[in-house]
Each structure stands twice: as C-alpha cells, then as structure tokens.
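re the bet — no i am not wrong, look at it urself. input seq straight from the record:
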Amino acid sequence: MKGDGDVPSGIDRGGVIVVSAPSGAGKTTLCRRLLAELPDIEFSVSHTTRPPRADEQDGVDYHFVDASAFEERRHRGEFIEWASVAGHLYGTSSAAVRQVTERGHDVLLDIDTQGAAAIRRLIPEAVHVFILPPGPEALRARLTGRHSETPGSLARRLELAREEVDKAPGYDFIVVNDDLEEAFDRLRSIVVATRSRRERQERRLGEVVAAFRAWRA
C-alpha cells in the first residue's frame, strides 16, 4: 500500500490481491486452497453484518458484527473500503491490510465488485482477479445444490450475479471456474507471477545491479 509508513529494512512490501466473483462461482474454495498451499499470503478477514453460514467461523471467515458496531468502525475510518451487498454491510480493515503487507506478505482480499472498485482507486498497484462461473445455468445449479436458497433468495443472487459479471472486464485477470484444478492452477500462477513484477523486486533488483556495477572481473 502506498503512503502507509516505511517498510522494515531488508523486506520488500507484500502485494494486495483482490478476488471477486458472484456467489456460487467457487471463489471461497479457490481462495482457501490458495492460502493453504501458497506461502507468504494471508487472508484479510472482513467485517460483515450478515449472519454466519453453518460452515463459517467468526474471526476466520468474517468478523461477524451487528450494524451499530459496523457503523462505529466505519465512522472511525477503520475500513479501507466498505459496501452494502444484498442488504448486508461488508468492510475491509485498513490496519489489517497494512500489517500484512509490511511483513512482506501478500494480502488476499475476498471482496465484491463495489469494494474492488474502491481498492482500485486507493491502491492502484493492487492486482484484481475475477472468478467466472462457466455460465448462468451452471451457476444456478451450484446455488441450488447448496440447499440453502429460497426461490426468492436464489432469484436475487442470480440477478446480483448478472450485475457483478458485467464488471468482470474491468479486472486484470479472469479465471473461469469450469474445472476446479485448472482454475486453481491459473489463480496460483497469477499470484506467483505478480511477485516478479519489477516494482515488487526493486530492492533485490537494486542490489544486483549495484553489485554488477561494482564488480571487476
């Protein structure tokens, strides 16, 4: 992140990886696997006012808070971005993102398209990845397979998915989750490749260039 203090000597600042997708596209599965298998990347646990699902843990998947607690944090300026999605509030902690990147680790932000747009403005060097389902019928089948959607909530999620997919062309990378293994390989490759960007290697690049300039064969 730019403008957030000095990076400790000898440590390159980590990057910010933004991942968005419509509900049911497989984003959570892909992100969890990425965190489990790739070193030096940490998940930014967002705050939300929505109730937890059966398989979610407070402080792991989200910080689940009520609306008043969320608003208090928002008014104190604790969120680098926040958004209202499907009637619930979501926010990303500025301090948490800064702490991870200053340790030299990448931070993974699992956020919606509204939040991603805010991050694009505030952290222009962030890398944005959109996870696409192979099509609307496949997405409907995945959402129905959860057995947690009412007809009304299913219709709302599919309409929201249409709006979110329309934003996909504005992302840096697109991963179509038709085959889970292939989608994961692509997502992992994107993150690994971003670590070799010149701006992420400036300290090491400077050291090597200086060594060659000073070297006498």
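see?? The beta strands are 16-20, 41-43, 47-48, 63-64, 79-85, 88-93, 106-110, 127-132, 173-176. told u. also The helical segments are 27-37, 67-75, 94-102, 113-122, 136-145, 151-165, 180-194, 202-214. so pay up
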